[in-house]
Amino acid sequence: MLGSGMSAFIFPTLTTLSVERMSSQEAGKLLGVTSAVGSVMNIIGSLCAGLAYDYIMVGSPFWMGAIVLFVAAYLLSQTGLCASIPDLFGVNKG
For the chain, which residues make up each domain, given as ranges? Predict the structure, then answer.
């Protein structure tokens, strides 16, 4: 489920934001690399989730997805990139 959510929402958003900041030649390279990396990660993620399901427990792929999500959110919060995201919900208003 995490993989389909990633494909459906995050990749198009990140690709659009990235392409808007590049020249057309660089955008073509970015789209090719993004597609290739996404395909390889789909293979690796499916393999790892299947092995975890078979050898650890039935719910382990979901726990692995949750851990990856929290680690990514923590790393993103440490980079300072979150400050450039518009405050749509009024969380940062003083």
Answer: 2-81
